[in-house]
Amino acid sequence: MRIAITIAAALCIGTVPVLRADDSVAPQVAAATADYTTDGRIQLGEIMGRFDALSTEHGWISETIYGYPDTQGIAIKSWRTPHRGEALWILSGIHGEEPAGPNAIATNLASLTQLADAGVPIVVIPLANPNAYRHNWRYPNTAERDWKKGGGYSVGDAEHLLPDLDAGDQPRAAKAPGPETAALTQYVLHLAEQYPPRLVLDLHEDELSKEGGYIYSQGRQADDNPAGAEIIRLLQATGIPLRQSGKTRFGETIVQGVISRDDQGGPIRDGSIDELLAATAVFVDGRKVRGPSAHTVIVVETPAFEGSKFDLRVAAQGAVVQHVGDLWHSIDGK
Ligand SMILES: [Zn+2]
Fold first, then answer.
1. What is the CA(92)–ligand 1 centre distance, in A?
2. Ligand 1 centroid – CA 57 distance (Å)
3. Model-level pTM?
4. Can you tell me the distance from the alpha carbon of 192 to that of 293, in angstroms, rounded to the nearest whole number?
5. What is the pLDDT of residue 333?
6. Who surrounds ion ligand 1 at CB < 5 A?
7. How far apart are CA 61 and CA 84, in angstroms?
8. Tell me: the pLDDT tens digits for 154-166?
9. Ranges of H-type helices in the chain
10. What is the pLDDT of residues 67-102, one digit of tens each?
11. pLDDT in tens, 224-240
């Protein structure tokens, strides 16, 4: 219900042309546009077609979370298993200049369907920012990477649903910064009721990293999380450089590749969709209610080498996707 209202209320945004919503992703239409593919990424129409095999060949449920008004074939979509319950969630493509995660998911769908066939409920939102992906932008509404200059906003910004950082008795922000952000965060909250997140993987890249990657660990077992430790082992085995210690450029301490605290030593509260999935309390229609309370939320941040070494980046993210079963069982029953 909440989803239908959000999509119906979707308006055009910023500098993006006025577009038309369409439930179906039509590869031939997207192929006609000058999509960015020079780094080796799978073109938008093709990658959406690959994800769609989850529904057409495996019986998963596909939904359009947000369709860009007046542009055929550009939509934020989800795929989920028909069976519900405590679930594995996989998010990727929040930032359009970080294509390795979506490409790794598209080339390793069998790892997801095998785990689903074993009975594990799964929700996948593999390309959360398709409009930025096809342009190699970071944000959905502008080519400018610096949000302070260009007014860019994240599709995963959840501050309007999260408690403020002081008393926690009101939302951290008055409203969502953009229509796809409103649609995506509302959708996630809604679906988390039917598919409570046990393990969330959000696959990012760090475009600016020169020293190596790292992961963020949030949830009820942020410190010493076995899934986080396994992901570090998997990434290391691919040869992608990781940071074992020191601090991020945001001042957070890295411990053996893992960041589980903010720069003050407290829980990570970055206002993202990852914090939303880990949150024990959220605001819905002005009321504070129980949040999705995920046991484990891991954000993978591998180096993007300024857009080069695409195959290595996809292999690193792919190693995580290939082992979702092991990761799931590493926190099983806790
Ligand atoms: Zn990112």
1. 9
2. 30
3. 0.90
4. 9
5. 59
6. 95, 98, 204
7. 11
8. 999 999 999 999 9
9. 2-8, 27-31, 44-51, 53-56, 100-106, 109-117, 130-135, 147-150, 179-194, 226-238, 273-278, 310-322, 324-330
10. 998 787 799 999 999 999 999 999 999 999 999 999
11. 999 999 999 999 999 99
In 3D space, the residue among 263, 276, 129 whose CA is nearest the CA of residue 205 turns out to be: 129
Q: State pLDDT tens for residues 63-72.
A: 999 999 878 7
User: Could you tell me the end-to-end alpha-carbon distance of the chain, in angstroms, rounded to an integer?
Assistant: 32
Helix H or strand E encompassing 65: strand 61-67
Amino acid identity of residue 33, one-letter, is T
Identify the sign of the CA torsion 228, 229, 234, 239.
positive
Give 53's contacts (C-beta < 8 A, 6+ positions apart).
109
How many contiguous H segments (helices) and E segments (strands) does the chain have?
Answer: 13, 10
- Distance (angstroms) between ligand 1 centre and the Cα of 165 equals 23
Distance CA 297, CA 234 (A): 17
In this structure, what DSSP letter does residue 43 have?
Answer: P
CA of 95 relative to ligand 1 center, distance in Å: 5
